[in-house]
Design goal:
This protein has 13 helices and no strands. The protein has helices spanning 3-21, 26-42, 50-60, 63-71, 75-113, 121-132, 138-163, 169-199, 215-241, 246-295, 301-318, 327-347, 349-355.
């Protein structure tokens, strides 16, 4: 098998793995499980679309919390936090829906715009491994377990302090359900940050003279930017729902900003790494060629002209920018960071307006 055929086969395998994996995104598993149960109940021949599962789950997900709260007669806790908890659970489900849209956007764009630009066979193998085993690892199950325990304990404690009594077993159950749903969403975000870091080490087909102006850089930049809007848009809703408790709001804002800032910094770093690697690859080739002429007859007019021409070309490439970060990018990122805070301000608009009176 020649190298060209091997490259082509690996690329096709990766594209097929991406298509297959889109159906295995953690939130999609839950939605498809619900549709399979619903299909068996209704005896439907055709499978239901995933969003039917999400809609059914939106109705079901608060019921255990409501049932336990009323069976145990936790009326004070329910009066203080019950409806907020229902919104909180629905937000977790909304986050899962947003996460699956974001992940499908990432995977489909990687399939269309990135795979064919990777020009090293070892990089393609690494890419395929990451895609093929993204959700099939014990790390995913471990993360879900640890996050659910942490979140159920921490958030229940914070809100128990807020209402000055134990939130009750019903609301704790709701927090556990939220943790199980939200952990898959958060795992996807952390997976993407990890995946992004790997992209910077690959070799790509880029514009030789100005790597920054390559189509791949444009496509990756759009993937990162769109993903950040998915993330901050979801966090915007989260801060609005948690507006009843100032401590929870600021906790959510800080927790939201940490992965957002990390993803932005990592994405810009990766783009810079790709551009710089491509630049130095070309510059090293030019330096090698310059050395060949220099090691020849230095008194030759033709050699001197070739050296000068190559030096001018070398300087032209070297002076091109090493990153995509500019004022527009920076302002766009600040706008994204402001979304979670805006959710808090809109949820407390009366307090904000009274402050300025």
């Amino acid at each position: 098998m020649n190298t060209s055929t091997e490259f082509s086969n690996i690329r096709e395998d990766i594209k097929q793995a991406i298509l297959s994996n889109q159906e295995n995104i953690p939130p999609m598993r839950i939605f498809f499980l619900i549709t399979r149960v619903l299909r068996s109940i209704t005896d439907r021949k055709k499978p239901y679309p995933w969003y039917i599962g999400a809609m059914v789950l939106a109705v079901i997900v608060p019921l255990p919390t409501i049932a336990v709260s009323f069976v145990l007669e936790e009326t004070n806790q329910w009066a203080a936090l019950g409806l907020i908890w229902v919104g909180y659970l629905e937000y977790g489900l909304l986050g899962a829906v947003i996460a699956q849209f974001a992940t499908k956007h990432i995977l489909s764009n990687m399939r269309k715009n990135v795979v064919d630009k990777i020009e090293n066979i070892n990089d393609l193998e690494n890419f395929r491994q990451i895609i093929s085993y993204s959700w099939e690892t014990p790390y995913y199950r471990l993360f879900v377990t640890l996050f659910t325990v942490f979140w159920a304990t921490t958030f229940s404690l914070v809100n128990s302090l807020f209402i000055k009594e134990f939130v009750g077993f019903g609301l704790v159950l709701g927090t556990i359900i939220f943790g199980l749903i939200a952990s898959g969403t958060l795992y996807l975000l952390l997976w993407f940050i990890y995946f992004t870091s790997k992209l910077g080490a690959y070799n790509y087909k880029l514009n030789i003279v100005s790597p920054r102006e390559s189509e791949l850089i444009f496509q990756l930049s759009n993937i990162f930017k769109t993903t950040l809007y998915y993330v901050t848009g979801s966090f915007f809703v989260g801060t609005a729902i948690n507006s009843f408790n100032d401590f929870s709001v600021w906790l959510v804002v800080v927790v939201c900003w940490i992965p957002t800032i990390l993803l932005f910094v990592k994405s810009q770093s990766v783009l810079g790494q790709i551009i710089t690697t491509a630049k130095w690859k070309t510059l090293n080739q030019l330096q090698k060629k310059i050395k060949e002429y220099h090691d020849g007859d230095i008194s030759s007019k033709n050699n001197i002209e070739n050296i000068n021409r190559l030096m001018d070309y070398h300087e032209r490439i070297q002076t091109t920018r090493n990153s995509t970060f500019d004022l527009k990018t920076g302002l766009g990122f600040l706008n994204q960071l402001a979304l979670p805070l805006l959710g808090f301000l809109l949820a407390n608009i009366e307090v904000v307006l009274s402050f300025f009176k």
